[in-house]
TrEMBL record:
Protein name as catalogued: HTH marR-type domain-containing protein
One Gene Ontology molecular-function label: DNA-binding transcription factor activity
A Pfam family per the record: MarR
Organism superkingdom: Bacteria
Species, as recorded: Ciceribacter selenitireducens ATCC BAA-1503
Length: 143
């Protein structure tokens, strides 16, 4: 690791992730969800009726984290779980009307959080940074 934290990509990436999460959390709390739930909501807005395993594969978080997050989302009235028609061990995850209705506001809140953290960036700088982040994430997935 670099001697100076500001020269460590690992340290900076962690700080950046925390910054985006904080910026989103402030906006998300007003709508009734948490920043950590957004990736799951996005997947379910795109395709409902996924199993927990399918969500795990798409969102790329730990199984225990997924189980806890889904439990909180169910408690908060964002999702409901239904029995899988052919696999007794699995449940399908569906959005509630509340979660469906918040889609536009939630995505707008995420966009506002992005805008806040990219304040002062010129368009090409933001696009270049996003490209670099995607590249680093792709490299991390190969580890």
């Amino acid at each position: 690791m670099a001697q100076n934290r500001s020269d460590s990509a690992t340290y900076l990436a962690g700080q950046l992730a925390k910054g985006f999460a904080r910026a989103l959390q402030v906006r998300a709390a007003k709508l009734g969800f948490s920043a950590g739930q957004l990736p799951i909501l996005i997947e379910l807005w795109n395709e409902e009726g996924l199993t927990q395993k399918q969500l795990l594969d798409r969102v790329d978080i730990e199984q225990a984290t997924m189980a806890n997050t889904l439990s909180r989302m169910e408690r908060d009235g964002l999702i409901e779980r239904r029995p899988h028609p052919t696999d007794r061990r699995a449940q399908l995850v569906f959005l509630t009307g509340k979660a469906r209705d918040m889609k536009d506001e939630a995505l707008s809140a995420a966009d506002e959080a992005d805008q806040a953290l990219f304040a002062g960036f010129r368009r090409f700088e933001k696009e270049l940074m996003l490209e670099y982040i995607r590249w680093a994430i792709d490299n991390a997935r190969k580890l």
